[in-house]
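Catalogue entry: protein
Contents: sequence, fold tokens
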Amino acid sequence: MLRIEKEKRLNQQAVISLVNHAIYQFGNSMSLIFLNIYLWRLTNSLFINAVFNLVALLAQAITTFSIGKFAKRKGKLLAYRLGIFITALFYLFILLAQEEIVTFYIGFAIMKGISQALYWLGYFTIVHEVSTDQNRLRVLGLNTIVMNGTNLSGPAIAGFIIGLYSGFQGYMIVFGAAFVMFAIAAIGSMKLKKEENHHTSYYMKYLPLILKREPVFKKSMVGWFILGFPHGILSFIPSILLYEIFLKEQTVANLNILFLSLSIISSYFISRFAQSEGTVKYLLLSAAGFTLSSVFLLADLSALTVILFMSIYSIFKPLQGNAYEAFYYNMIGQLPLKSNFRTEAVVLRETIINLGRGFGIIIFLTFVNGIEAESIPFVLFAIAVVQWLIPYLVVNKHSFITKNSSGRYNHNLR
């Protein structure tokens, strides 16, 4: 079980990208959960928290689509480095503004969205470049382990620090530590080598034709939109709910350790044993898991049901995300323009999934008036049920996907 096949081993650039991502994500995880709680404590307004996350997601989607041509012509690595730099500035400005962040929260949300767009567009393209069809599931699995590992340790340390101080002093120390992490990540990004790219033409103008000729690719766009629905809501609601129940940041951090430990275990098994031909099965299983987790909330919105919901969701989220990402990345190589459409495909993925996340928050704001609203479980259940559409979007009557001996997906049009 411990032996890694030669074709699944990672090259040096893949290792560097994962290590640097771990540093970046550690800083992000220290601050992101508590940024939402910080806003909640300052305002006690679910609306402000929701709007902050909604504006950030919309800014991220718009920026991603707008900078696609720039990223392809000037290099994805430049966008990646700019994303880290602007994220560092974001937390520096929070340190300067402190409680005045409430006055300028829309501006902070826009800055957050722009920095995230630059970073993730660069990073996801780099992941594709440093991996192969044979080891991509393993790279994605290890990437999820890195993210969950840092997301586990970051909030735990941040919660401990915040608990040592009264008022908001602990929050400022955590945001300052995050700023240092992003500075280190900016230095680490210099070790990544710029890929020699002789294809700098931007092919987004061919998107309508590709969507017309490739039914599976068109439906995969819808899949990313649906997949994003729960992400937007669950980026801030669970932490606020748990804080309102326990009124201790450290408790929220400790429960976060539980949820992410489950995701790490799930991600490990995915990275070791998942096979490309199991995509539909994994997506069906994920939809079933999401639906089951939301059923507990329908019975009662309490500490126990929220913990059960997040525990089950944490197990199945990596399975859905990694299966769909691997399917999408492999499909890129089967498009008419093949790898020349790689940047455009990543731009579309990031734009659409963030629009989906934003749409999820809009749905939430439409039907939920406050943190104690009885409609919260029903909204989450409805969004979980919609996830059952994603497996259908992967394989349908117009096309099918098989796997050849090299591990590639073959996209065959009937």
